[in-house]
Each structure stands twice: as structure tokens, then as C-alpha cells.
Specification:
The complex is a heterodimer of chains A (about 375) and B (about 475). Chain A has 19 helices and no strands. With about 375 residues, chain A is mostly helical. In chain B, strands 3-4-5-2-1-6-11-8-12-7 form a 10-stranded mixed β-sheet, sandwiched between helices. Chain B has a two-stranded antiparallel ribbon with strand order 9-10. Classes of the chains: A mainly alpha (about 375), B alpha/beta (about 475). Chains A and B meet through helix 2, helix 7, helix 9, helix 10 and helix 17 of A and helix 1, helix 6, helix 12 and helix 13 of B.
């Protein structure tokens, strides 16, 4: 009818195509409008359902935890039968169990785990862990590690070497939180870089760890620099002063990042014995590490230590000269920095300062 | 004989004009098809990127981050020029950001008003020793101020001679102390955990991350209290609403797609985080262009490629930064004029990258895309309109053909905007009231006819101004967000 009405038969091909495209776009537009509405309604529905399920679960969990007169296994079966209908219900309940677990201690935690098993949440998550999709695995790992529930190691070990940072991260957290004795044993076999985010998460987990914190010197010879850097940081975080000699050895490490971290940690741990080696390495160090050494001197060294470096700060290293001036200022009135200071011609100042140092026989 | 000759010439001319018309028609058609394909691809890439982002962040624990002393510290750089009216409130809001270690560096770019005086009085600032690095050349620094009050110990104010936004940011780079810099517009509103979210790509990446950007949202008419958005609303004007759609398209569809293929060329100047060392190696902000934000990122990426260093640029789709968009036609036109000039300047400065396989995705996809679809698009569109007018004058228009072509373009424009609305609904659903969504859908119907010609002409004018050597930013007066939508 439309064809007849518009006499489409007589239209050139290109016009017919364009008309069809217009109709197609219009239909798609309507479809997307419908989808927008559907998403809004679905989100509202899901939100209402979530709230309802949460309320039901909170009531149930409170009764389960604190009312000894009930038949617990019967209540569990009853709740499961009447309230868990879809995977979305499982997901809501897992979140709630995690919240309860985080806020409860002692005997109640064991009861929460009973709920976890009794409602079939363990089996649901185990299925997720066996699925192909990374996000299902990651979600399952997250829940298991938060609850400290162990699953067969062979399911988790391969994830530690995963290329997906999320899987690797949750695998690490799982091993940390489920380990009874050696929480960082996974570091031995870890390959690839440990990202800063993973380092922060490990540190955070370790802080709430109840068993003895491992000796981080164990991994100072790890082939992966980021793990060595992390362990150096942790030696400071957990005040492992007995490892200071190993930290001093790190000043000779081949990696710039490791040396950098060692300088910073030795400075923070206030180890003046390390200064001699830092000063000796200064001429060969990278710009960033030279800067760190200067700042280490400001914290644990003397003005004389600083002066010994004057011949090794070159004319073209303007930023280092500025660092030097800044740090010199911290030593008070002992040096004529303010007199020499003219930031517009800092290199010229530096030449004057070097000459002054040599003439005064301070260091150089 | 002569008449016959003239008739044959006229006939030749007509034939010639017909063939020219056909050639132009086909060219416009091909261009339109390429644009449509580009948009469809970007929509597909974006939806996958948003989906993955949602999956990645479904069960994360940001609180863990806040407790760590091992997070990299951040210097937040905010240039201010004649911001007397709002600068104090904006800084107070910035000082309450959730992050374990950061400093706020306000760069007073030679303001002619009493911005500096107000800051000195409010925060009890005192002049510090004038010593700072010279990583990048800048105008003269007149003073560096810090507060006597402990509560403001992470605030630093730099007073310098006027040199423009790029110069002010370069001064901030010279004077700040941390290795990560977050460059913002002082008048934008940041979510409390915006730094935590924006730093995530730097933390959780096995490659070196040189920059990370976020989505900019429209704050006009939103309810703001204590420098925070507490209720998201639509702007009152049509221009404001149309820009919301435009921002959806640009950020939720465009930049998300580019982020997926690691081809981002632009991180908005209103809110972006950078690795300071890479910025310095690239030479800092270029103060000879009005598109300094885009130019910096392109240069940083170019430097990394030329040095063969593996790197990436992060993008966070969470709504982290809210800004005021122009709601008057005049100011909008000025802004778009400047954006167009900035794009052209950047592409001209880095023309070496165009179609150059050495630069990978940037050379083969990103820069050609920006050239054809950002720079050329308004010019081609404008030429098309002129061409159409000529055809009308010559009586060569087949209005049936015109109608069909117009219909296909119009329906596609609407489809693209509605898809962007769908993306917003699928991702963050910031506009909670259903009436807002209906109003946006209505705006999408009118936008191609009312709004689009304005921005197209502004971009064309930008190109003309560039040819004429105009370099200025143009006055960008704002109504101010301080009282926007307050109940």
C-alpha cells in the first residue's frame, strides 16, 4: 500500500535504500527508547526486590544468629525454598552474608558460614569459579577470600598467573585471607608485575591479619622488581628493623626502582649507617635517586654530608641544584644559600657556590 | 551558425554542471556513510567498555585505598584568573577531597581582581622562599604562599604574571611537589572520591600510565551544597539540555570507545591526571595553542611512541567532575570556536602522525578520525548547505531526493542521541526522575535542527578565525554554580 501510495516502484534505487534506512533508524530509535524505559523499570523493580530480599534476610539472619529455640536446619531449608528463585537472589544474599561477616566476630561468624553453606551460596559460587567468564570467577574469589572459605587450590593457582589484573588480584587476596600460617607464600610463584593497587590491597589485608607477619627479607631477592619494592615498603610498614642490613644491600640492586625504594625506606627508618653507601653511589645514580639521596641526607645526615656531594652535582643538573639549595636551607644559617640564591640564574649561583665550597675547603 | 554554437556550449555547460553535481552528491553520500559507520563502531566499542568497567568495579573496596600510606601523593593544580567571586568556596571544597595525601596548588594567573588578596586574608597565607624548579619555561612567579593555619597545610598559592591557562599550569608543574598532577578548572565541582577513582588506572596497570581522564558532567541547575552536587537536574535552557546530550555522546560513546582501543587524544582540561615526569619530558603545556589540553596529550603520546616506551592512557567513566556549560548562544559560540581552533592547531602541530603507521592506533585511526570527523565535518557540512542553496537557486533540486536524504540523516542523528541516552541509563543513571529522561528524548528530536547548526557555524567560524590569525581564548563569562538550583 505504501509502495503504491508513494509510487515507490518508480523511485531510483538509491532513494529506496535511503527510505529503508530511515525506517530502519526510526525503528531502532523507538527500540532504544523502549530499552531506556525498560532499563528504568527493570532497575526500579530490581531495586525494590533487592530491598525486600535484604529485609527478609536480615530478619532471618538475626533469628538464626540469636534465637536458640528455632530448628536451624529447618529454617535454612525453608528460607532457601521460599526466597531463592534466581541467580540475582543468590547475589543479593552473598552481599548480605559478606556484610554480616564483616560486622560480626567469634561464634556468630561460624553461624554466618553455616548460613552460607546452608543456603547453597557456596555451591553457587563454586559454579561461578568454574565458569569461563573472568568476572564470575573474580566475584566468587572475592566472596571466598572475604569469608576466608577455602576451595580446592587447583582452582585458584592458575588464576595467580592470569593476564587479567582483576583475577590475579582476587587470587592474591584469596590466598592471603585463607592462609592459616604463611599468608604470602604465593609470592614465591608469582609471575609478572605486582601493581600498586595489588600492593595496597595486600598491605591492607596484612594489617588485619591475626597470625604472625612473615619476614619480608625472604623476597628481597625475588626476580620480579615490583615484589622486591613491595617487600621493602612492608619492612618499613611492619617495623622489621632486623632487616636493615638487607635493605642496605638493596642499595646495590640492579633495578633503579628497588634502589629508590631502599633509599626512601632507609631514610624513613633513620639508618645513618646507610648514608655512606648512598653518598658513595651518588655520582653514578640516576637523577631521581640522586634527589632521594639529597633528601635522605636532610633527614639523617649532616651539612657536611651534603657538602661532599657538591663536586658531583653538575652544571647542567639545574633541578638537582635547586634540590640542593632547598635542602641546604633546612640546615639553617650554616651556609650562605640565601645570599647566593637568585633563581633566575641558578647555574651561575651554582658555580659561585662550588667555588665558595672549594675555597672554604668544605667537602670538595 | 553562431546560435547553434552557443546552444551546443550551453548544452556542454549543463552536462558539465550535472556531472559536477553528481560527483559532489556521491562524495557527500560517501562521507555521510563513513561518518555513520564511525558512529556505529564507536557505539559498539563503548558499550563493551562500559560493561567491562561495571564488571571490574562491581565488587571493589575503595576504603582500603584510603587507609594506605603507600598511595602516590597527588598535586592538584588549579589555575585561577579573576575568580574573586567563587575562588574561596571552590578551594574549601577542594580541601575536603577524600584522599590520603594531596596538595592543592592554586595558580593566580595575574588576576586583575582581588582574588589573591581574598585568598591571603581567608587562608592566612604568608609568602615563602621563592625557590622552585624550572622544568618548563613560564612567566615570572611573583610569590609562593602557604598558610599559617595547620588545617590548610596542603594548600599552596602561586602568584604569577598573566600568561594564560597553559602558562599557569606550567607554573604549577614547576612549583608542585608530587609526581602525579591533577589539572582541574578551579570552578568545577569534584566528587569527594574523584581522586581515588581517577588514580585507579595508574595503580592497577601493568603498563606505564601517562595520563588518566574522567567524564565531565553538566552541573547547570543541579542542587549544590557545600561545593557538592546533592541533586542532579537538567539545565533550564534548551542549549543546556542539548549540551547534556552532546556530553553523553562525547564521553559515554566517543571517549569510551577510544579508550577501549587505547586511542584517546583528549583528556578534558577541566579534570585530568598526568604523570608529571612524562609531562615534563614532553615539554609541558603549549601556550601557543588554545587547545592546550588536547595538544599536551597528543604530544605526550607522540613522545612515548617515538621513544618506544610501552604506555597507556586511562579513562574512568564515573561521573567525577561537574562543570558549568554556557547557556547563552554567544558564549557557546565562542567556546566552540575555540575548541575548533584548538583541534586544528593540534592536528597541524602533529601532522607528522597522520596516517603514519609508526604511531599505531594514533596514526592510523585517532588522528585521521579527528581530522575527518572533528575538523572537516563542520566544514563539509557547511559546504553541503552552500551547495544545496546553489542548487536551489539553479533550480536543480529534486525535493523528493532532498526530503529522503534529510530524513535519513535526521533519523540517524536522533538514533545516535537516543543511543547515548541509553548508555547513560545503562551505566550511571544520574538523572533519576523519569521526566528528565523524557525531556532529554524530546531535546534529541529538536537538537539536530536547532542546536546543531549553531555549533557547526561556530566551528566553521573557528576555522576562519584561525586563518585570519586569531589566537585569543575569548571572554568566557559564567553565571556561576554557587547558587545554581539552590532550593
Amino acid at each position: 500500500m505504501l509502495i503504491a501510495l508513494l509510487e515507490l516502484d518508480e523511485w531510483p534505487f538509491i532513494l529506496k535504500v535511503n527510505l529503508l534506512l530511515s525506517i530502519f533508524f526510526l525503528i531502532l530509535t523507538l527500540l532504544f527508547v523502549g530499552l531506556v524505559l525498560y532499563l528504568r523499570i527493570q532497575k526500579n523493580f530490581k531495586e525494590a526486590h533487592r530491598k525486600k530480599q535484604e529485609t527478609k534476610f536480615i530478619d532471618f539472619a538475626n533469628t538464626f544468629l540469636f534465637d536458640d529455640s528455632i530448628n536451624k536446619s529447618k529454617e535454612l531449608a525453608n528460607f532457601k525454598f521460599t526466597n531463592i528463585k534466581s541467580s540475582y537472589d543468590y547475589k543479593i544474599l552473598i552481599k548480605q552474608v559478606l556484610i554480616f561477616d564483616e560486622n560480626l566476630k567469634g561464634e556468630s561468624t561460624a553461624l554466618i558460614k553455616e548460613i552460607f553453606y546452608g543456603l547453597g551460596l557456596y555451591r553457587f559460587l563454586l559454579k561461578d569459579l568454574n565458569r569461563k567468564e573472568w568476572f564470575n570467577k573474580a566475584r566468587a574469589l572475592f566472596a571466598f577470600s572475604k569469608l576466608g572459605i577455602a576451595v580446592p587450590d587447583q582452582l585458584i593457582m592458575p588464576l595467580l598467573q592470569s593476564k587479567r589484573v582483576e583475577l590475579k588480584q582476587h587470587g592474591i587476596l584469596y590466598f592471603l585471607n585463607t592462609s592459616k600460617t604463611d599468608p604470602l607464600v604465593f609470592l614465591d610463584n608469582l609471575e609478572g608485575r605486582l601493581t600498586l593497587w595489588q600492593q595496597v590491597l595486600i598491605e591492607n589485608s596484612l594489617k588485619s591479619f591475626e597470625v604472625e607477619i612473615p619476614d619480608f627479607a625472604r623476597w628481597l631477592n625475588h626476580k620480579e622488581d615490583s615484589i622486591v619494592v613491595f617487600c621493602i615498603k612492608m619492612i618499613l610498614s611492619f617495623n622489621q628493623f632486623q632487616n636493615i642490613p638487607f635493605l642496605i644491600d638493596c642499595l646495590d640492586h640492579t633495578s633503579e626502582n628497588v634502589r629508590h625504594q631502599a633509599i626512601q625506606v632507609l631514610q624513613a627508618m633513620e639508618v645513618p649507617e646507610a648514608l655512606q653507601l648512598m653518598v658513595a653511589h651518588f655520582p653514578e645514580e640516576t637523577a631521581a635517586n640522586k634527589r632521594s639521596i639529597l633528601y635522605a641526607i636532610s633527614k639523617i645526615g649532616t651539612y657536611k654530608d651534603l657538602q661532599t656531594l657538591v663536586p658531583f652535582i653538575h652544571k647542567e643538573e639545574e633541578n638537582l641544584q635547586i634540590d640542593f639549595y632547598k635542602i641546604s636551607g633546612l640546615f639553617g644559617d650554616e651556609i650562605p644559600v640565601k645570599k647566593l640564591l637568585n633563581i633566575e640564574t641558578i647555574t651561575k649561583d651554582w658555580e659561585d657556590f662550588q667555588e665558595y665550597s672549594i675555597n672554604s675547603s668544605i667537602g670538595a | 551558425m553562431k546560435v547553434a554554437y552557443l546552444l551546443s556550449k550551453l548544452n556542454d555547460l549543463q552536462l558539465y554542471s550535472i556531472s559536477v553535481i553528481e560527483v559532489f552528491s556521491v562524495l557527500f553520500l560517501i562521507y555521510g556513510l563513513i561518518i555513520i559507520s564511525g558512529y556505529i563502531f564507536s557505539a559498539f566499542f563503548s558499550i563493551f567498555e562500559i560493561r567491562d568497567y561495571k564488571r571490574r568495579n562491581n565488587f571493589q573496596d575503595d576504603a582500603a585505598l584510603l587507609q594506605s600510606a603507600n598511595l602516590p601523593a597527588i598535586s592538584v593544580l588549579a589555575p585561577a584568573y579573576n575568580e574573586e567571586a567563587n575562588v574561596v568556596e571552590n578551594i574549601r571544597s577542594l580541601l575536603t577531597l577524600n584522599y590520603p595525601s594531596f596538595e592543592i596548588v592554586i595558580i593566580n594567573d595575574g588576576s586583575k581582581d582581588k582574588s589573591l588578596q581574598k585568598l591571603i586574608e581567608t587562608f592566612e597565607l604568608e609568602k615563602q622562599e621563592l625557590i622552585h624548579y624550572h622544568h618548563v619555561q613560564t612567566k615570572k612567579v611573583r610569590g609562593i604562599y602557604k598558610s599559617r593555619i595547620k588545617a590548610y597545610k596542603n594548600l599552596r598559592v602561586i602568584d604569577k604574571e598573566n600568561g594564560g591557562k597553559a602558562d599557569a599550569l606550567n607554573t604549577g608543574i614547576n612549583c608542585c611537589i608530587y609526581d602525579l598532577i591533577c589539572c582541574i578548572d578551579v570552578d568545577c565541582i569534584l566528587e569527594r572520591n574523584s581522586l581515588l577513582k581517577l588514580i585507579r588506572p595508574f595503580l592497577n596497570n601493568t603498563k606505564r600510565v601517562i595520563a588518566s581522564g574522567g567524564i565531565i558532567r553538566v552541573a547547570n541547575n543541579c542542587i549544590i551544597e557545600d561545593g557538592r552536587i546533592i541533586e542532579v537536574r537538567l539545565p533550564r535552557t534548551f542549549l543546556g539540555k542539548a549540551q547534556i546530550l552532546e556530553y553523553f555522546r562525547a564521553f559515554l560513546m566517543g571517549r569510551m570507545a577510544w579508550s577501549r582501543v587505547d586511542g584517546l587524544l583528549l583528556i578534558s582540561g577541566a579534570f585530568g591526571m598526568f604523570d608529571k615526569q612524562t609531562v615534563i619530558e614532553a615539554g609541558g603545556y603549549n601556550h601557543h595553542t588554545v587547545g592546550e589540553d588536547m595538544e599536551l596529550l597528543v604530544r605526550m603520546r607522540r613522545v612515548m611512541r617515538e621513544q618506544n616506551i610501552p604506555y597507556t592512557v586511562g579513562f574512568v567513566p564515573d561521573p567525577l567532575c561537574w562543570t558549568e556549560v554556557p547557556e547563552s548562544r554567544e558564549i557557546l559560540t565562542r567556546q566552540r570556536n575555540r575548541w575548533a581552533r584548538g583541534t586544528v592547531e593540534t592536528l597541524m602541530l602533529h601532522k607528522k602522525m597522520l596516517f603514519n603507521p609508526r604511531y599505531g592506533v594514533l596514526g592510523l585511526l585517532s588522528t585521521p578520525y579527528w581530522m575527518f570527523f572533528e575538523w572537516f565535518a563542520p566544514i563539509i557540512e557547511f559546504t553541503g548547505i552552500l551547495f544545496f542553496i546553489i542548487l536551489v537557486l539553479l533550480g536543480k533540486v529534486n525535493f523528493q531526493v532532498f526530503g529522503i536524504f534529510f530524513l535519513v540523516i535526521y533519523t540517524f542523528s536522533i538514533l545516535f542521541s537516543i543511543t547515548a541516552i541509553f548508555f547513560e541509563e545503562y551505566s550511571f543513571q544520574q538523572y533519576k526522575k523519569p521526566k528528565f529522561m523524557f525531556m532529554l528524548i524530546l531535546t534529541a528530536l529538536l537538537e539536530p535542527i536547532i542546536y546543531h547548526p549553531i555549533v557547526m557555524w561556530a566551528a566553521v567560524k573557528g576555522n576562519i578565525d584561525l586563518i585570519q590569525g586569531k589566537k585569543s581564548w575569548g571572554e568566557m563569562s559564567r553565571a556561576g554554580l554557587g547558587n545554581t538550583g539552590k532550593t
